[in-house]
Amino acid sequence: MLLAILAVHVVVQVTQPARPQSAVRDSMRVDSATRGARWRLPVTAGVLASAFHDAPSRVILTRARRARTEQDSSLESYDAMSRQRISVGAAIVKFGPERLVYRRESSARVQWQRGRGARIELTGARVAAPMLPDGEQRKNLIDGLADDEMSPIPYFPGSESMWIGGLSAQTEVSESELVNPLAVGAEAYYTYESGQSLSFRLPDGRTIQLEELKVRPRAPKMNLSIGSLWFDSGSGQLVRAVYRLATPARMTVGVTTDDSANAAKGRTASLVIEAIMSPMTAYISSVVVEYGLYGGGRFWLPRVQSLEGVAQVMFARVPVRMENAFSYASVNAALNLATITVDTTTNDRAPRMGRPPAGLDSAARRRWRDSTRAAYTAAVTARADSVRAGLRIGTMRQCDTSATRTITRFRYDASIPVELRIPCDVDKLTTSPDLPASIYDRGEALFGSADAERMIAEALSLGAQAPLSLGALPRPRFQIGPSMTRYNRVEGFSTGFLVEQQLGAGLSVTGIARLGVADVEPNIELSLARSNLSRTVRVNGYNRLVSANDWGEPLSFRSSLAALLFGRDEGFYYRASGAELTWASERGARVEWRAFAERQRGAPQQTGYSVGGTFTPNIAAASGLFAGGSMRLVRGFGVDPFGFRAFTDLRLEAARGDSAYGRGALDVTLSRAFSKGAAVSLSLAGGNTVGHVPAQRRWFLGGTQTIRGQSADTAQSGTAFWLGHFEVARPSPIVRAALFADIGWTGDRANIGEVGRPLSGVGIGLSAFDGLVRFDVARGLYPREQTRVALYFGSRF
Fold first, then answer.
1. Is 137 helix (H, G, I), strand (E, B) or coil?
2. How far apart, in Å, are the Cα atoms of 687 and each of 534, 589, 652, 697?
3. 631-662 pLDDT, tens per residue?
């Protein structure tokens, strides 16, 4: 659960960078209508001259800016249904399965009336956290019922039309926040260009004309956005926004102390933790906001809101998706809401930490932070206790005498009085008909995700980028620590560092250098990549150690621990020097295309040291120049750990050296729980080759990823293979005990019909957190009768 909360918080809040000192001196502006100081660059005549690529773009922006700050006095009320879904996943292995860590769904009836406020009736809410016990999932649900985020208000006059960056629309740009391209002063940060236009006719005969405004940042900064905005040419109202942040953001670790005297120690601890946990990055790859015409075609009100992002912490990739969907039963109908009176003396909403008051010196600011932190912590604890107690029947007066608990409060900085009604019977929320039949359903129709995918593909192509910005580069990103450290029989102990520099235009330069203490051969890579945070094209030159294995990640820190401690180095290695062009996509199915030209050669074993066990011999790789291409396609189906799930992995490769060869393989894993007491998993894989295949491109069986109980060995290789895994387990994603049996064969492709006695092994395994961590005790049956113990990550079941 901590991982889920961290991911949501980081991805949504990462757009709050420190104020650049260059802007502090010349650009401090104070606007009494906004919160505190507004830091922004000046908009000079030269800036205005370069901000607009054409005259229509200036007209569109001016009209949209005026509409953004005007409150539509003719909108008096609406009665709406609000639905929300937040999903957080996790993946440990690059091409391994992605698991659902956390999902929350909610629905609410929202009635808003001008001058009265909003009455919200929570009609549905549920949480799925498969890696937590049922009691903890229910506790998490109860703790979050009173959160403002669980029951979003679709719209109120003055709300932020682009959704993220603040609930209320801010008049002017603030560089300390997400820089809104529609705010006053945004010309200093963005350029604008008119795009397409379209029109449609309403049933009453009116024609609506829509105009596109393409927004591009002037520099690659993490608080600037790239996107396409569509406006109603008549009213200037935003109709559709599809955008993303310009660059990934670095996450930081904050170590707080009880007093300011230990602040220096806290900063040092933060730096050490960040070095160990690198990489630590996060990015928002897409935001979609779409409006619909309601009230007889008079009002543009939000219909769909979605956000996607990814956090990367060490070996874990954490994708996050948030979706809001709104439907309206009536607009401007007579609701006759009673005036909502907020009782601030009993408001259980935790206060915000805020910022120190202006004018304090450094010592006073430290004292303010120390005292505020203690008050904030106490308020958060009290609020959580209050919510939990209030929703347990018999522990609060409201639930003693009524079926509904009522909370009144002002929301955020909008000063909107809100009356939130929550059923005391939580089971009514979890079985609500306003939510999908199952929390694991895809829900495209309900949340509008199918339309969002189409809009993202159209507006956020690889060509939609910030300009090249060599004169004002952001700070480079460095990566060291465990993610850059490994141990194997060729290099021995090997570590290095990575440095990445954003250049603008979606371009980045990355350099990697490492050295092994056993072979003392430098590994160097230098690459130039272009990315839109969903797809990446990369040109790379390298001299590196390569694993010939098609399963697992022998060159990772995780696998290196087994090599160092138990002599369990399951990789077969060769060296490659050359260049490659890759294209990778992480939206939907994960796919990577690669074209390469490289010189391959052997990598002799240089060390035999291991705390326990001995290393198997390495392969004798064929030397030569090879040029060719490869493709890998990985896809998962289903997220319900108690339902049907499938995972497929397709690999194709063709190359030419002294002779030509081709190879291909397909892995399919199917799993399903048939009852509360039994779940089964079946994995089938097969591969073949054509032409003369060098030793380093043969298929290798044995080890934790293929035939458990059998050691990885060069004698167990061939030009064709097949294998199968069968497991039966208790269907619990938290800790799952399983019995398994593996069988497989590899050899000459001409003898694929003459298997003889195949490799085999059986055993028992413990899978924790839905396969993210796996521990096996396996007994080899043939050809080796031996017992092997393995701990690894990212298993398929």
1. helix
2. 30, 21, 10, 12
3. 999 999 999 988 899 999 999 999 999 889 99
C-alpha 187/C-alpha 173 separation (Å) is 10
List beta partners, residue 586.
none
DSSP lists the bridge partners of residue 651 as: 632, 665
Adjacent-strand bridge partners of 228: 214, 242
Query: Which of 142, 133, 123, 129 minimizes the C-alpha distance to 7?
Result: 129
Residue with tokens 């937040």: 86
The residue with tokens 């990778």 is 584
Listed residue (250, 216, 309) closest to 506, CA to CA: 216
Length of the chain: 797
Alpha-carbon gap, residue 109 to 230, rounded angstroms: 28
CA dihedral 422, 427, 428, 431 (to 10 degrees): 130
Residue 384 backbone dihedrals phi, psi, to 5 degrees:
-60, -40
Q: ∠ CA(23), CA(66), CA(285), 5° rounding?
A: 60
Question: 3-class secondary structure for 328-344?
Answer: EEEECCCCCCCCCCCCC
pLDDT per position as a tens digit, 659-704: 899 999 999 999 998 877 789 999 999 999 999 999 999 999 999 9
User: Strand pairing partners for 307?
Assistant: 287, 322
- Region of 448 (left: φ > 0; alpha: ψ -120 to 50; beta: rest) is left
Cα Rg of the chain (Å, integer): 29
Output the pLDDT for position 37: 44
| E strand or H helix at 649 | strand 645-656
- CA 74 vs. chain centroid, Å, equals 40
Could you read off the pLDDT of 480-499 as tens digits, one per residue? 888 899 999 999 999 999 99
Confidence (pLDDT) at 4: 39
Domain boundaries, the chain: 2-247+279-459, 468-619, 622-797
Sign of CA dihedral 336, 341, 347, 350: positive
pLDDT of residue 25: 27
* H helix or E strand, kind and range, residue 686: strand 678-691
Give the β-pairing of 416-423 and 117-128. Answer: parallel
Q: Is there a cis peptide before residue 758, judged by omega within 30 degrees of 0? A: no
- Which residues, listed in sequence order, are joined to residue 775 by a DSSP beta bridge? 766, 791
pLDDT along the chain (797 residues), means of 10: 39 37 30 46 91 95 84 84 94 88 94 92 93 85 83 86 74 84 93 92 85 93 92 92 88 57 64 73 91 89 92 88 93 88 60 58 66 61 53 52 84 78 90 90 71 82 86 84 92 94 91 95 96 94 95 90 88 96 89 97 92 87 95 93 93 93 97 86 96 95 93 92 94 89 95 88 93 93 93 87
d(CA 129, CA 764): 26
Distance CA 163, CA 169 (A): 9
What kind of fold does domain 622-797 have according to CATH? Porin (2.40.160)
Quote the CA–CA distance of 279 and 504 in Å, as a whole number: 21
The CA distance from 310 to 22, in Å, is 30
The alpha carbon of 620 is separated from its chain's Cα centroid by a whole number of angstroms, namely 41
Is 681 exposed, middle or buried (CB count within 10 Å of its CB: 0-12, 13-18, 19+)?
buried
Specify the residue for token string 């006695």: 757
Give residues with Cβ within 8 angstroms of 318, minimum separation 6. 3, 6, 7, 88, 89, 90, 101, 310, 311, 312
Q: What is residue 52's DSSP assignment?
A: B
Q: Could you tell me whether strands 590-602 and 699-700 are parallel, antiparallel, or unpaired per DSSP bridges?
A: unpaired
3-state secondary structure of 43: coil
Secondary structure of 388-453 in HEC code, one letter for each residue = HHHCCCCCCHHHHHCCEEEEEEEECCCCEEEEEEEECCHHHHHCCCCCCCCCCCCCHHHHCHHHHH
476 upstream amide cis, omega within 30 of 0: no
What are the φ and ψ backbone dihedral angles of 681, each rounded to 5 degrees?
-135, 135
